[in-house]
From TrEMBL:
Organism phylogeny: Eukaryota, Viridiplantae, Streptophyta, Embryophyta, Tracheophyta
Gene3D superfamilies: Glycogen Phosphorylase B
Keywords carried by this UniProt record: Transferase
Entry protein name: UDP-glycosyltransferase 89B2
Family: Belongs to the UDP-glycosyltransferase family.
Any one GO molecular function term: UDP-glucosyltransferase activity
Domain of life: Eukaryota
Gene giving rise to this polypeptide: LOC105061084
Length: 462
């Protein structure tokens, strides 16, 4: 293999929107601010997801590979978009088929990579890094608390004391603040683990390889998760833990993540006509589709609250018939994707009813918008816990199958925009100030990113 002639980072994202977007933001910063050479590896159908990055960072080089042959997946499935959770495990397993093509590329390219940064679902990339004799850094699209929980789960393998009780508490005394969650809210990958089953063992080995990796990069910031970042440094036994978030640029492209049925200009014009801090944004990420009963309860609560709102109804969410007509002027329903960062940053928006995906949490934090939490799966329960404990959000509902009480929802929404929600809104604004300070020159995340770039530059010197 040719010897590296300077730093060259190979970035490997996991093909889910919530995972890809922050890693692409990190790649942009490493390329544009620190002039590092970065190659980003994707499969054929995921190549269009790089368009925005490549328009902002023309020096980034895409490496497009055929998706590995994997009969257990439907033909053409290369990412999680619109897919049920049942496909996530085989998709994660299938991606390991990229290891040999990446190894062949790295050994043939005239400027081979000197480090790998890859998503935490891609533990097999540690083996690739070992084959190439270079360090692998884990990129976490989730917060430091969630990763601490994952590490405890896969090391200790705690089980329910009552195998028939979905609410059986699972405690984590090793982690600061000794968090506890019911079994049903523990990681899907972990709950579905079967000892000896090949994909289950592959997933477990991947997370254990993460723990042994050279370094960790988190999309978070010190003032939000300092205690958990310190925990990782102590637990991992080294200081190569960098908190570089929030990574989403507040003035970034409005088309980030997709396109909407309502033009971006139409949404922003509607917001321009609303009083300051008078609007609730309702959005549950790109994966979650509300069941008819859930959508009806949400619509009923919004209608009774008297609040102005924007509801992003993704996928096949069935907005009740006649609702949009009755709410015309007071509420705006967007069918499909909406420019969430731009909406949250508008002066009219004061609160956000969210599933608490980590990207959404950080976007709300950056914008200084209070949250109403309705976590539904994955890391969202832990994120919601952190939001409420920090005093920047209020618990509303939890669970993918939960149906909120419309009257209670109306009350919580009205409170969030009224006098009784003022304290939470003020705390949200204060945390926003700290988040924005973190990413400014001299801030904690700026310094960590600078330190990360310096370390990557060192390992590239031969």
């Amino acid at each position: 293999m040719a010897e590296p002639v300077g730093p060259h980072v190979l970035a490997i994202p996991y093909p889910a929107q919530g995972h890809m977007l922050p890693l692409l933001d990190l790649v942009h910063l490493l390329s544009s601010r620190y002039r590092l050479v970065v190659t980003i590896a994707v499969t054929t159908k995921n190549r269009p997801l790089l368009d925005t990055l490549l328009s902002r960072s023309p020096a980034v080089v895409p490496l497009v590979l055929p998706f590995p042959d994997y009969p257990a997946l439907p033909p053409g499935l290369e990412n999680t978009n619109g897919q049920p959770p049942a496909f996530f495990r085989p998709l994660t397993h299938a991606l390991a088929g990229l290891q040999d093509p990446l190894l062949r590329w790295a050994r043939c390219t005239p400027h081979p990579p000197s480090a790998i940064i890859s998503d935490f679902f891609l533990g097999w990339t540690s083996d690739l890094a070992a084959q190439l004799g270079i360090p692998r850094l884990v990129f976490s699209p989730s917060g430091a608390l969630v990763v601490a929980v994952l590490h405890v789960l896969w090391r200790r393998m705690p089980q329910r004391s009552d195998p028939d009780d979905p609410d059986c508490p699972i405690s984590f005394p090793e982690i600061p603040n000794s968090p506890v969650l019911p079994w049903r809210q523990v990681s899907f990958f972990y709950r579905t683990h079967i000892v000896g089953e090949p994909i289950s063992e592959f997933v477990k080995e991947g997370f254990l390889k993460n723990i042994a990796s050279w370094g960790f990069v988190f999309n978070t910031f010190a003032d939000l998760e300092r205690v958990y970042l310190d925990y990782h440094r102590n637990d991992l036994g080294h200081s190569r833990v960098w908190a570089v978030g929030p990574l989403a640029p507040p003035d970034g492209p409005t088309e980030r993540g997709g396109g909407a049925s309502a033009a971006v200009g139409e949404i922003m014009t509607w917001l321009d006509g609303c009083p300051e801090e008078s609007v609730l944004l309702v959005a549950f990420g790109s994966q979650q589709v509300l069941a008819p009963l859930q959508a009806a309860a949400l619509a009923g609560g919004l209608e009774r609250s008297g609040a102005r709102f924007i509801w992003c109804a993704t996928g096949e969410t069935a907005v009740p018939e006649g609702f949009e007509g009755r709410m015309a002027g007071r509420g705006l329903v967007v069918h499909g994707w909406a420019p969430q960062v731009a909406i949250l940053g508008h002066r009219a928006v004061a609160a956000f009813l969210t599933h608490c995906g980590w990207n959404s949490v950080l976007e709300a934090v950056s914008a200084g918008v209070a949250m109403l939490t309705w976590p539904m799966g994955a890391d969202q329960f832990w994120n919601a816990m952190l939001v409420v404990e920090f005093g920047v959000g209020v618990a509303l509902c939890d669970g993918a199958d939960a149906v909120p009480d419309a009257d209670e929802l109306a009350r919580v929404v009205a409170d969030s925009l009224g006098d009784s929600g003022k304290r939470v809104r003020e705390r949200a604004k204060e945390l926003s100030r700290r988040a924005l300070e973190a990413v400014k020159e001299g801030g904690s995340s700026w310094k960590d990113l600078e330190g990360l770039a310096a370390e990557l530059s060192k390992v590239g010197v031969k």
